[in-house]
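Now read the record:
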Amino acid sequence: MHSFFALRRMRHAFALAVATTFVSLASWAGDEEPPPPVNGHFALQSLDGKDVSDADFHGKWLLIYFGYTFCPDVCPTTLSQIGAAFDGLGPKAKDFQAVFITLDPARDKLQVMKDYMKSFDPRIIGLRGEPDDIEAAAKSFHVYYRPRSLGNGQYTVDHSSYIYVINPKGKFAELLTGDLPGHPLVEDLRKLDK
């Protein structure tokens, strides 16, 4: 039963990601300039208080996932899948760095993020920043996100659910989704690092 719900959540995440892509493409008319390419830049803070930018990771494959700690299913599932993929890579995992960037700086305070990241592979680092810094990073990657009120002062954050891959030279390489049935994430990572 547990795997049924996990599969359902993965399908939901994939459907949201695909729908977001189609919405973006539908809003682009062929006679207009295409959207700028993903440039993969960010300047944020690590959970130990250091300033961190994309340039700090040159030389490794960078896997970036945007989400938030109050996410009920998609974010924790994706972060767990990244950790499992690292386990599957064995010693080759050292060629990769995974980064989780919050889209909800209002709730994802430093201690909240520290506690949250303890639930996942320690090779995944968390980054946060001021709302303007988060917005700049999200724009750099063309991340869709929008807070949605649930009433009584509660809200959720709708967001695209891609893993953004930056190559060791700091250039955007491709988008990945979490594990799909019959196609584990680890296989995508092995293909990258040949």
